[in-house]
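Whiteboard transcription, Tuesday session. T.W. wrote the structure tokens on the left side:
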């Protein structure tokens, strides 16, 4: 039985008055619920009708045909607060309705929580029994739970009164068959409590304004079963909207029916002693084809997106794939020019094609691209909230799965996009090589939201040495971690430039294979130095982070990258990523760099100013040795090549760098010297 707390008369400000129709009076009613409790999916037999506070908090809204209601979390208890009201004396006459309830956010770690209003069809529940008999089961297809699309926020630790009011809520109260209604209050993901009618203060209430005359609700029916949005107005200029369900007798109303992709319908209808019924037939706008193609300079023309049901003004929001890969092998053939994964287009009144530029994948790498749906071990596919075309995926729960198996040995690098579906809690992910014993990367955090990833970019792993058959594995500590895509490159070649003079140094970050390079005219040498003599030794493979001297012809070479090498690195220094200032070691060492003298001969010069570029190699010689000539010998029995350092003074030196005379005399008779080969001013001299 309803309880009327307050009833007064007030002037009804309604359409009838604004149109000059006889004034009507309205009543106000403040109703308390006839019953309230909360339903607990974790304990269907319990009754909470005598509680002063009611708990509410479900895991997720699921307003779809398959799941028309609220989803309970299997790891937690879900609850809904319910309130029964009797509006039978007012239905059909209600002009405004506001539901008020006092809620508390008990959170200590979240700033705000939202509280929602809805209703369900069952009304035979009581405070002493639950809805177990009425099919109150999570995600039950027959439950018919309905949202009003209304929510209010409550800050952390705050108790306050919140109000809910809308046209849909008003229409529901006026149109209920017997006038007995069940309202539900719930929170999503986090629990909120609300006061019951048994509370000492802040009790729930339903505040109504109702007319003393009959009000009417117009029914609009579209002949093709479409559901346009209809707005009713009190004036022909359509400037003053009117709530359906508050229509008065003897009045003419105007309406606009709108549906995306269809022409608007403008019409009018009178109210004459009965609820009006209006039939509509929406006319479709002309249809066009809207296409987005991937294009490239070498002739790629592939459809990425096509909508044959487009019309003028239709908005197309599209997420593009950064990489285009073979669906079977996952090898990348093209990559997007730039990083514009997202685009929004408004279609014109014609067939239209947009183009997105891609470029052929660089030949120095072999690349592989996996979208979220390619990982069949990730059970949940998520269409929205990703950073590239295709789906994002989730499903691992403290488990590890294989992402990629190396088809051949080499150096690989990894780029990936992931996010955390629940940024209120920190979860851990990791990438392993073959097992958790070899961690490539790991991170624990809660900042991996979609917007965070869009702002900060994707993550990278470099210099992963894999043999054929090695696996890259992915670990996720919780199902909230969503893996969108993984892009993997194998570095097939590393480039090196040799000058026209035929010499160069290289400091490589990757292991390199020179086995076949001699056929192309390139030879690599490691260097060892004893303080006086530098010996070059030919090598066929080079470890990562190693300096070498190159002898070849004047052009760019592409050297195969391998997984690893055990060759001795020698004494050449360098950096693959940073320049090295010449005075970086001025307290102990001098830097010697490869160059050409005036006679176009290669020499190691003592550097005095500037920097050694990244990717180039150099020698360090202790200042205390006072080296004046540094001979470099290629360790081959049939060839001796000398590369002398720029000397601070003239003189004659042995091949080992020992000074033996100030100068040769006369016609190079070599007085006082034994027969043999010497160096004078950087040139070879033979004493007979």
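and on the right, the sequence the group agreed on:
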């Amino acid at each position: 039985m309803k309880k009327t707390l307050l009833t007064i008369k007030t002037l009804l400000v309604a359409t009838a008055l604004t149109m000059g129709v006889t004034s009507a009076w309205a009543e106000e009613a403040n109703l308390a619920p006839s019953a309230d409790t909360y339903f607990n999916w974790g304990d269907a037999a319990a009754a909470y009708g005598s509680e002063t506070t009611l708990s509410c908090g479900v895991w997720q809204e699921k307003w779809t045909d398959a799941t028309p209601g609220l989803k309970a979390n299997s790891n937690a208890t879900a609850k809904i607060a319910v309130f029964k009201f009797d509006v039978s004396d007012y239905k059909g006459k209600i002009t405004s309705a506001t539901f008020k309830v006092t809620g508390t956010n008990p959170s200590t770690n979240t700033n705000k929580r939202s509280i929602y209003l809805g209703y369900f069809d069952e009304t035979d529940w009581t405070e002493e029994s639950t809805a177990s008999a009425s099919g109150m089961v999570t995600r039950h297809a027959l439950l018919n739970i309905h949202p009003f699309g209304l929510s209010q926020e409550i800050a952390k630790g705050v108790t306050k009164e919140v109000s809910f009011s809308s046209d849909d809520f008003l229409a529901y109260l006026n149109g209920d068959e017997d006038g007995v209604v069940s309202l539900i209050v719930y929170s999503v993901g986090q629990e909120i409590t609300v006061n019951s009618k048994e509370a000492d203060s802040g009790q729930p209430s339903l505040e109504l304004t109702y007319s003393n005359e009959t009000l009417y609700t117009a029914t609009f029916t579209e002949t093709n079963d479409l559901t346009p949005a209809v707005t009713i107005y009190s004036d022909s200029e359509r400037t003053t909207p009117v709530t359906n369900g508050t229509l008065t007798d003897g009045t003419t109303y105007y309406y606009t029916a709108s549906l995306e992709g269809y022409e608007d319908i403008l019409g009018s209808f009178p109210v004459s002693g009965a609820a009006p019924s209006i039939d509509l037939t929406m006319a479709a706008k002309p249809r066009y084809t809207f296409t987005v193609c991937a294009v490239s300079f070498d002739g790629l023309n592939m459809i990425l997106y096509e909508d044959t049901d487009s019309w003028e003004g239709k908005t197309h929001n599209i997420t593009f794939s950064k990489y285009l890969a073979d669906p079977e092998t996952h090898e990348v053939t093209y990559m997007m020019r730039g990083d514009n994964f997202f685009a929004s287009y408004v279609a014109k009144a014609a067939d239209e094609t947009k183009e997105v530029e891609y470029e052929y994948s660089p030949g120095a790498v072999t690349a592989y691209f996996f979208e979220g749906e390619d990982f069949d071990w990730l059970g949940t596919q998520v269409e929205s909230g990703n950073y590239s075309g295709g789906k994002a995926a989730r499903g691992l729960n403290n488990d590890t799965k294989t992402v990629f198996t190396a088809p051949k040995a080499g150096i690989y690098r990894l780029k990936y996009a992931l996010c955390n579906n629940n940024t209120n809690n920190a979860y851990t992910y990791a990438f392993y090589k073959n097992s958790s014993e070899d961690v490539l990367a790991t991170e624990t955090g809660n900042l991996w939201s979609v917007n965070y990833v869009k702002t900060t970019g994707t993550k990278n792993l470099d210099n992963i040495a894999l043999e054929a058959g090695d696996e890259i594995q992915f670990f996720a500590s919780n199902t909230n971690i969503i893996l969108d895509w993984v892009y993997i490159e194998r570095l097939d070649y590393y480039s090196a430039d040799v000058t026209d003079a035929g010499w160069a140094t290289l400091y490589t970050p990757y292991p390199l294979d020179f086995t076949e390079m001699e056929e192309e005219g390139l030879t690599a040498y490691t260097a060892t130095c004893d303080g006086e003599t530098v010996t070059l030794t030919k090598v066929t493979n080079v470890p990562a982070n190693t300096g070498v001297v190159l002898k070849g012809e004047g052009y760019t070479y592409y050297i195969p990258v391998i997984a690893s090498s055990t060759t001795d690195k020698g004494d050449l220094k360098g950096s693959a990523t940073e320049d090295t200032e010449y005075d970086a070691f001025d307290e102990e060492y001098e830097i010697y760099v490869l160059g050409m003298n005036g006679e176009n001969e290669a020499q190691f010069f003592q550097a005095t100013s500037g920097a050694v570029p990244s990717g180039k190699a150099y020698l360090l010689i202790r200042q205390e040795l006072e080296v004046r000539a540094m001979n470099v010998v290629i360790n081959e029995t049939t060839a001796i090549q000398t590369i002398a350092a720029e000397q601070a003074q003239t003189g004659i030196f042995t091949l080992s760098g020992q000074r033996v005379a100030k100068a040769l005399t006369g016609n190079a008779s070599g007085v006082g010297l034994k027969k043999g080969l010497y160096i004078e001013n950087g040139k070879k001299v033979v004493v007979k």
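Someone added at the bottom: Helices lie at 15-18, 167-175, 450-456.
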